[in-house]
Amino acid sequence: MSHTYAQNVIHVVFSTKDRRKTIPADFQPRLWAYSAAICKNLGIFVHAIGGTEDHAHFLIQVPPIVALAKAVATIKSNSSRWANEEGQNLAWQQGYAAFSVSASRPTRTGCPACSKAGGAASPPLPRRRRRTGRRDGRTLPARRGRCHRG
Predict the structure, then answer these.
(1) How far is CA 117 from CA 52, 81, 112, in A?
(2) How many other C-beta atoms are found inside a 10 Å radius of the C-beta of residue 38?
(3) Does residue 39 belong to any structural domain of this protein?
(4) What is the number of domains present in the chain?
């Protein structure tokens, strides 16, 4: 794939099994560092990793030869195996959430719950501002999750 260019910056979130608080604050830095090493072995660039006692956030850049589902499965299985070897009772819940992030501002993502708990990998997103999109310079309303079609 020498002529392939991709910049897939993705915010991945997954939680502990049954949202149990099984990642103690003193163990989190070690878990995040180990998870970053897993990503490095897969060829995944890590922008940020963080979370709280019951979930993790990964802001990663996945190369085009690695499927996202495979990458997340590998991160989850290897990190939980290692944590259990270290004496922690950690199991990840099935599934994950993944969101594409603008490549021009990849570190502007985060979780409000994490920032309140002091465990955020990055600052939370600012509130959306009104945007201009018309030739006459008038502003358009910020999207609120609904389709603009009638």
Answers:
(1) 7, 26, 9
(2) 18
(3) yes
(4) 1
Q: What is the pTM of this model?
A: 0.71
The encoded tokens of residue 57 equal 């956030």
Q: Which of 36, 57, 58, 45 is nearest to 7 (CA)?
A: 45
Q: What is the pLDDT of residues 33-48, one digit of tens each?
A: 999 999 999 999 999 9
Considering the domain boundaries, does residue 48 fall inside one? yes
Is residue 8 in a domain?
Answer: yes
With tokens 């199991």, the residue in question is 91
Burial 1-18 (b: 16+ CB within 10 A, else e): eeeeeeebbbbbebbbee
pLDDT digits (tens, 9 = 90+) for 97-143: 999 988 776 655 556 455 554 444 444 434 444 444 555 555 555 54
137 within domain boundaries: no
